[in-house]
Amino acid sequence: MVDNRYATALVIGCVLSALATVYLSLAVGTQHWYEYRSPAATSEANASELRGLRDDFLGTDFDEKSYSDALFRLNGTLGLWWRCILVPTHSHWYREPDPKMVSECVSFTLPQQFVPKYREPGNHNSGEDLLRTYLWRCQFLLPLVSLGLVVLGGAIGACACLCRSLTPMLGIGVLHLLAGLCTLATVCCYLAGMDLLHRVSVLPDGVDGSLGWSLYLALISCPLHMMAAALLVWAARSHGQNYYRMTAYRVA
Prior knowledge:
The chain is of the alpha+beta class. It has helices at about 5-30, 45-60, 65-75, 110-115, 130-165, 170-200, 215-250; strands spanning about 35, 75-80, 80-90, 100-105, 210. It has seven helices and five strands. A hairpin with a 3-residue loop joins strand 2 (about 75-80) and strand 3 (about 80-90).
């Protein structure tokens, strides 16, 4: 029989795990990890340049410099699997009244996620930037690993419920701890990668960048996973020690 304290810890741990998984899933599936604020077009020449950036952004050719320039100049948002820009619905980019803006998004394909980064974005002769390349790859692989660990923990937990045993909860807690560390590493890799990108790219005048709510969702999911891990490990260890003491007492 499970003590009420351990049962309560298990319920709270499961709720925290579910919340962390939902937050991380939303973060991975949305594009608001980093957001740019760009000045509006001020002349026809400027508008023509922005149209060219939009066409390059939506084109089939994948080039880091092309889509980065479009993100900088067109109020772009960048995520792990999506990149979006904000463009007017009609051809009038700068005339009054202000045009209605819509978001146009393009997803990163799996092969594109493994494309190497270069020391000078867009210049393949500048040599591969290994640090940025592996930071980029880690930032989209690690959250998938984190979600996989949680799914594995859920499957083990379902088997433990069927067997009416708390012993596997110790392993599930360890899996949640690893999931939280993977999520934290994802955020760190993303922030480091964006900092390096801004060092090798020249941001246009008047462009500001800020962290988006998707990144904060991922950041929130990290301590939730770790708190769930702590509760599950505590419940499993405390219940196990109590069970062994009761067994020893009955034998004696």
